[in-house]
UniProtKB/TrEMBL annotation:
SUPFAM superfamilies (alphabetical): PH domain-like (SSF50729)
Signal peptide: none
GO MF term set: SH2 domain binding; SH3 domain binding
Top-level taxon in the UniProt lineage: Eukaryota
Keywords: Coiled coil, Cytoplasm, Repeat
Domain PH residues, every copy: 13-109
Pfam families per UniProt: PH
Localization per record: Cytoplasm
Originating organism: Mustela putorius furo
Database matches in InterPro entries: AFAP, PH-like_dom_sf, PH_domain
Protein name as it appears in the record: Actin filament associated protein 1
GO cellular component term of the entry, any: cytosol
Length: 115
């Protein structure tokens, strides 16, 4: 969970949240507070931010996990939404990746029945 000074409104009712690294262009990584809430992935630059830097609806998305295979590579989750660039997030471990996969899959299986 994020630090104590994190705005509790950001994580209130969140299904899962953690600081993850987001892959940017040219292979750089930036640290973001990622929160799954209301069938959306919200990414904040800081736990003090009120507005997300990025918001991705999880309905109809595709998520894949790529395990770490070398010292340089990270455990990666790739979230693909039709018509948008894939979002690549780095997680700390296989266990953390599995937690995120489960939550995101639960979210979009729960909302796939709604048109």
């Amino acid at each position: 969970w994020p630090s104590e000074e994190a705005s509790m409104d950001l994580v209130k009712d969140a299904k899962i949240c953690a600081f993850l690294l987001r892959k940017k262009r040219f292979g750089q990584w930036s640290k973001l507070l990622c929160v799954v809430k209301d069938a959306r992935l919200l990414c904040y630059k800081s736990s003090k931010d009120q507005q997300p830097q990025m918001e991705l609806p999880l309905q109809g998305c595709n998520i894949t996990y790529t395990p770490k295979d070398s010292k340089k590579k990270k455990h990666e989750l790739k979230i693909t939404q039709q018509g948008t660039d894939p979002l690549v997030l780095a997680v700390q471990s296989k266990e953390q990746a599995e937690q995120w996969l489960k939550v995101i899959r639960d979210v979009y299986s729960g909302c796939s029945g709604q048109a």
